[in-house]
From TrEMBL:
Record SUPFAM superfamilies: UDP-Glycosyltransferase/glycogen phosphorylase (SSF53756)
Organism: Bhargavaea ullalensis
Protein name per the record: Glycosyltransferase involved in cell wall biosynthesis
Positions of the Glycosyltransferase subfamily 4-like N-terminal domain: 21-164
Pfam families (UniProt xref): Glyco_transf_4, Glycos_transf_1
Length: 364
């Protein structure tokens, strides 16, 4: 079996978290003896000129690999329906290579809604795929009901959590390593520092707790790839008079797990979320999770695994954080959390993914 993985996001040393979930899956396949080639965009930079350069180069690299390996590739696996899936669709039509496409959320929630043309192309990509993987149940329903893809060719399969990395650690030791003072109430955010991740509402929630005499320190871990918004957010924080918001920057996964062990609450107030892998990684690391009840997050936080709150609601978010900080809170069921983490283990993901590839190659 030989797979060509295509993705418009893939990490490098300069951008270690950019599409890290795709690389993790690639490495899982390689560790288990699967021959995997990758053609991906590794530069998160914005702007029309940068976009033309990187997307053009990516398309040429994909074409080169398909032309050279069209007889050896079992399937191509596209991450994100559009634009990535378009390359797989072309590969199928020109070279007869079947493809699998993973829908992550933004491709349907944002990209497909930009224009009627992109939506039609997204529908064609999904319908011609040998199999469509969705990272959450809501996306499964949208693909089957909204795009008319037969349920027999659609699966719900997350990107999986690496429990060898995301695990319980010595809290005092990692707090000392990261410079978090003893007794400090620490709220962690992990993700891109962008508006749609609810970062403004998070600092507003911190301000609310501050006024109520329950101060917290907010640690923002992630890329400030939108420099304009990051400056706007810092100005907003200054206007609120908050002095306990820390911009940490990006962190490798091993260190990210340490942050999750060191902090008290993981806050994920996204406006939309296909799955919410960070929440699952937090659960595996033992941190209490508060997040928006949207998309895949609403499922992950269900059954007392976390505290769901409405998106774009700083007051509700402050209330969720306050409850999560309460050591007597009964909002968290440890057994339910353990079962959910196990359900998304690397071994389970690998078994299901290989079965999807085999069926796609056999035309089933």
């Amino acid at each position: 079996m030989k797979i060509l993985v295509l993705s418009n996001m893939y990490p490098t040393e300069s951008h270690p978290t950019y599409g890290i979930f795709v690389r993790n899956q690639v490495e899982l396949l390689r560790e288990n003896g699967i021959d995997v080639d990758v053609a991906a965009i590794t530069d998160p930079g914005k702007g029309k000129a940068a976009a033309l350069k990187k997307y053009g180069g990516w398309a040429l690299e994909t074409a080169r690999r398909l032309i050279g390996g069209r007889k050896s590739y079992t399937v191509t696996h596209a991450h994100y329906a559009f634009p990535t899936g378009l390359l797989s669709l072309i590969g199928k039509r020109l070279f007869g290579v079947p493809y699998v496409v993973t829908v992550h959320g933004g491709d349907l929630d944002q990209m497909a809604r930009k224009s009627a043309g992109i939506r039609r192309m997204t529908e064609r990509i999904l319908k011609e795929a040998a199999h469509v993987v969705t990272v959450g149940r809501r996306l499964y329903e949208e693909v089957t009901d909204g795009y008319g893809v037969p349920a027999s060719r659609v699966s719900v399969l997350s990107m999986g959590v690496d429990t060898e990395v995301f695990r319980l650690r010595d809290r005092e030791a990692v707090r000392q390593e990261l410079g978090i003072p003893a007794g400090e109430k620490a709220v962690l955010f992990v993700g891109n520092i962008i508006r749609a991740k609810g970062t403004r509402e998070l600092v507003d929630a911190a301000a609310i707790l501050d006024r109520e005499g329950e101060p917290v320190t907010v640690y923002l871990v992630g890329s400030t790839k939108d420099a304009g918004y990051a400056d706007e957010l810092k100005a907003h924080i200054a206007g609120l008079g908050l002095d306990r918001v820390r911009f940490v920057g990006t962190e490798p996964q091993e260190r990210l797990s340490k942050w999750m062990n060191a902090c008290d609450v993981l806050a994920l107030p996204s406006y939309h979320e296909g799955f919410g892998l960070v929440a699952l990684e937090g659960m595996a690391s033992g941190i209490r999770v508060v997040g928006s009840g949207v998309g895949g997050l609403s499922v992950l936080l269900g059954d007392d695994r976390g505290i769901p709150v409405p998106p774009k609601d700083a007051d509700a978010l402050a209330g969720g954080i306050r409850e999560a900080l309460d050591p007597e809170s009964r909002a968290f069921d440890g057994e339910s959390i353990r079962r959910e983490v196990a359900r998304h283990s690397k071994d389970q993901i690998l078994r299901e993914l290989l079965e999807i590839y085999e069926d796609a190659a056999a035309g089933r």
